[in-house]
Predict the structure.
Amino acid sequence: MRFRRPFFSVYSRVYDYLWDNSLTGVLADTIVQELGGIEGTILEVGNGSGLVTRRMVDAGLDVVASEPDPAMRSRFSGRLTGVVCEPWPLEEARSIDGGYGAVVAVNVVHMMDDAAAAVEAMRRLVADNALVVVATPGAQTSVSSVVRTMRELGASRVRRFGFVLVHLLLMPLSVLTNAGVPRDIHAAWITPPERASSVLGITDICVWEHPSSSD
Ligand SMILES: C[S@@+](CC[C@H](N)C(=O)[O-])C[C@H]1O[C@@H](n2cnc3c(N)ncnc32)[C@H](O)[C@@H]1O
């Protein structure tokens, strides 16, 4: 589950340019829908610059954020002044009395050494009858499928070209720091999710209820 600091300290500088767009907006809205009716505090793991957090906060949800990368945290604090952002990587995340109402990780666990262990760690942090919500790239997701979807959602040609160029430049660092995308993480889940769905064909959302029927 190791946190890849060299990769993320570079990635954080271009993150909003790449991802502050309508594609992330659709994903964030879907996450908010999944969390409808949740009582209690929600822990977001690896919130990055806060692109999804801001939708949760706008929807009236009580969120504690946690993000190990200092540059991402500083962008987050500029965007969401009133939201606590703890410096924890998932492996050091602390629970609260009674557990969280939900734990959410959007496009985080696929970047960890052991995505299955990450989900189990998240399940240990939630209260009874609470949810773990994990969004990851789908097995078929690629830079070109993301760019195609961006075009369908109205992103300009310049923006799409920039997206591809930045990814080409980041690729060697991603390989060197082993922060790449493993292909089939779903097959590795120790406890299967209660629900799985796809957003725009490029992001999979898995939801675990805790305790689940298989516990
Ligand atoms: C692709 S970004 C996603 C950011 C945000 N969730 C979003 O959707 O905009 C991945 C984030 O996971 C964080 N991260 C990486 N390893 C982590 C770990 N072990 N524990 C918690 N967060 C981690 C990174 O610092 C980065 O901010």
Q: What stands out?
A: The longest strand covers residues 126-137. The chain has a mean pLDDT of 91. The longest helix spans residues 157-176.
